[in-house]
Amino acid sequence: AEAPLLKGRRILVTSGPTHEPIDPVRYIANRSSGKQGHAIAAAARAAGAEVILVSGPAEVADPKGVKVIHAETAQQMLAAVEESLPVDAAVFAAAVADWRVADASDQKIKKTAGGAPTLTLVENPDILATIARHGTLRPRLVVGFAAETQEVVAHARDKRLRKGCDWIVANDVSPETGIMGGDVNTVHLVTAAGVEDWPSASKAEVARHLVARMAAELAGEAR
Ligand code: C5P
User: Where does CTP bind (predicted)?
Assistant: First the structure.
């Protein structure tokens, strides 16, 4: 049998949403099942890699054979990612909340007549951009995701440059596509060389395809 494609490689994947607390019982969240990110972690493991999955509170179970670090907030996710470096490649599939509540309350906020609370939001760190621009520990291959509802490829191209990553996996998450939370995905791979339109496939197949592309890229690089 052929040697596994990613044997000897260390691969990091982020997946799932983040939850940003308002108080001990309430939070702000992004919509993400974790299906695609977890499938990528599983596919990388199946290809022989050592895999670290940094997962937000996802709906899907932890994949087998993978080191899983659970994080709730964006700040915790960034810390877990930084602690996991160095890696050969990193895939940022998590749907990270862009903002957190500035002063989350230690106590449950009481509902008082005529006085809805005002939440002040502050920007969360961009985990993908932070790692893509990491001076010494930047992975050789940094892959981001772009979930868009319009002009999917154009926005993904901009995002690739703005975030400093190598590839963007772009998908159309308009409600009518059923991709959000569903099992099928239609993606476009945006690289420095151009755009590849991949056929619609299960999230598991998209994961295997991406992992194979990553293995080829890592194998082709001079070391
Ligand atoms: O800018 P946008 O959120 O659309 O970018 C999506 C990409 O950036 C995804 O790969 C996502 O995992 C990553 N991201 C991140 N940290 C953030 C926001 C997005 O890693 N705070």
Answer: 98, 108, 125-128, 145, 159, 163
**pLDDT beneath 50, residues of the chain:** 222-223
- Hey, what amino acid is at 182? G
H-type alpha helices, the chain: 35-46, 74-84, 127-132, 152-163, 203-220
Q: Give pLDDT, residue 180.
A: 72
What is the pLDDT, as a whole number, of residue 84?
A: 98
Q: Which two tokens stand for residue 16?
A: 């799932």
What pLDDT, on a 0 to 100 scale, did the predictor assign at position 222? 46
DSSP-derived letter for residue 8 is: T
Structure tokens at 185: 């995905």
Q: Is 92 annotated as a binding residue?
A: no
Is position 64 annotated in a ligand binding site? no
Cβ(141) – ligand 1 distance below 6 Å: no
Q: ipTM above 0.95?
A: yes
- Tell me how far apart the alpha carbons of residues 148 and 145 are, in angstroms, rounded to a whole number: 10
Contact 13, 93 (CB under 8 A): yes
In angstroms, the CA 38 to CA 150 distance is: 25
The answer to whether 128 is annotated as binding is yes
Tell me the three state secondary structure of residue 105.
coil
- Report the residue among 96, 99, 150, 159 best suited for mutation to probe ligand 1: largest number of ligand atoms under 8 A from its CB: 96
**pLDDT score of 3:** 67
- Which of the 8 DSSP states describes residue 175? G
Q: Order of strands across the sheet with 141-148?
A: 67-70, 50-55, 10-15, 89-92, 141-148, 167-172, 187-191, 194-197
Residue 30: active-site member? yes
Which atom of ligand 1 is the closest one to the Cα of 125? 21
